[in-house]
Amino acid sequence: MSSVRMDKWLWAARFFKTRALAGRACELGRVMSNGLRAVATPESAHHLGATNSSRRKPEERRPSTKPATAPDLWFRCKPAREVRAGDRLRVENEGGAYEIEVLEVSAVRGPAVVAQTLYHESDASREARLKLAEERKAMREFALLPDRRPSKRDRRRIIRFRSSG
Fold first, then answer.
1. Which CATH class is domain 1-36+72-143?
2. What whole-number distance in Å separates Cα of residue 160 and Cα of residue 139?
3. What residue segments make up the domains of the chain, in order of their start?
4. Where are the beta strands (DSSP E) in 1-156?
């Protein structure tokens, strides 16, 4: 198998519990793909919104002030986008933000040990995620706990407040 749908791969790699959640994350822009360095070519320049100056004669062309390589370009994914080995992905879920490289594709959800072999997380991503988790854990110490459980009246107000949002 050379490629598989994005939502199916995210589900198989255990980033989301269901394919529906994986598809919803793609639609909300929480999954970005292929942060490959791109070299500006006349074909890609038009796609990136540049003027069509490549049709001018060589002596009429303006000198370019941009570097030969653009910064990392990340594109929003649709759930039906095909994932292939070698793709770079940025995935945000309740566990944090992951920057990964796809090593293998799979359409079957297996054990967590097998799912972890499908991708490789970058060291910077892992360090940032662990740092954020430590900060969240430290902030729990300072969170004020309520003196008592909410009463029935309080609970109804909470439900009304949450549903009005």
1. alpha beta
2. 28
3. 1-36+72-143, 40-70
4. 3-5, 31-33, 75-76, 82-84, 88-93, 96-102, 119-121
Residue 99, beta-bridge partner list: 90
- The residue type found at 66 is K
CA–CA gap between residue 152 and residue 129 (Å, rounded): 38
Q: How many CB atoms lie within 10 A of CB 37?
A: 10
pLDDT score at 75: 82
Distance CA 33, CA 13 (A): 15
What is the block-wise mean pLDDT of the chain (165 residues), using blocks of 10 residues? Answer: 91 95 93 61 44 49 46 79 92 91 93 95 93 89 85 94 84
**pLDDT at site 72:** 63
Residue 17: its pLDDT value, please?
95
Burial of 48 (0-12, 13-18, 19+ CB in 10 A): exposed
